[in-house]
Amino acid sequence: MNGEHQAYIGLGGNLGDAAGTVRTARQSIGALIGIRELAFSSLYRSAPMGPSDQPDYVNAVMKVATTLAPLELLHALQQIEQTCGRVRTGERWGPRTLDLDLLLYDELVLDSEVLTIPHPGIAEREFVLYPLAEIASNLKIPSRGPLRELVQNCPLRGLSVIAHD
């Protein structure tokens, strides 16, 4: 692919077979035209960020090469979420079958109504930072600093590896 960009995608879910859904989403992302998987982290279990009366989450991070523009990639990810049964209720941090977040896209810094890159919560979320560090330990997060430093300043909060994919 010419004109390739590197992007990092956060995958997570906590309803149904969450690990299976994350694995299905990985395959679906890799099957998109204009996408090539470069790396995939282990699967992690994390406590829910929102209401505590919901199941733990399964999370992972995927690195891809893509010829898609950021908004095209976002829309493709949202289509995969819908295919996997995601229903957007407007409830913040509620349970969901699948959540796909565009975390990083090259060194791009973007803040629009539709998309913010780097992802706004990237520097504080252990379920993003640790899987990201597993596959890209030397990464520098635009406007946030070296990934290693962000990881050092982020407690695990019960995060654990559940599968090496």
What do you see in this structure?
The chain has 165 residues and is of the alpha+beta class. It has helices at residues 18-30, 70-83, 126-135, 147-152; strands spanning 5-13, 35-40, 43-46, 57-66, 99-105, 110-111, 116-117, 140-141, 145-146, 160-163. It has a single domain (5-163), classed as 2-Layer Sandwich (Alpha-Beta Plaits), CATH 3.30.70.560. The chain has four helices and ten strands; from the N terminus they run βαβββαβββαββαβ. Strands 1, 2, 3, 4, 5 and 10 form a six-stranded antiparallel β-sheet that branches. A hairpin with a 4-residue loop joins strand 6 and strand 7 (116-117). It starts with a strand and ends with a strand.
Q: Under the CATH scheme, which architecture would be assigned?
A: 2-Layer Sandwich
Which structural category do the helix and sheet elements fall into?
Answer: alpha+beta
Q: What string, H for helix and E for strand, traces the elements in order?
A: EHEEEHEEEHEEHE
CATH topology descriptor = Alpha-Beta Plaits
**Helix run count:** 4
Write the layout of secondary structure elements.
Elements: E1 5-13, H1 18-30, E2 35-40, E3 43-46, E4 57-66, H2 70-83, E5 99-105, E6 110-111, E7 116-117, H3 126-135, E8 140-141, E9 145-146, H4 147-152, E10 160-163
Antiparallel strand pairs: 1-4, 1-5, 2-4, 3-4, 3-10, 6-7, 8-9
Please describe the structure with a list of short key phrases separated by commas or semicolons.
165 residues; alpha+beta; Alpha-Beta Plaits; six-stranded antiparallel β-sheet; two-stranded antiparallel sheet; 4 helices
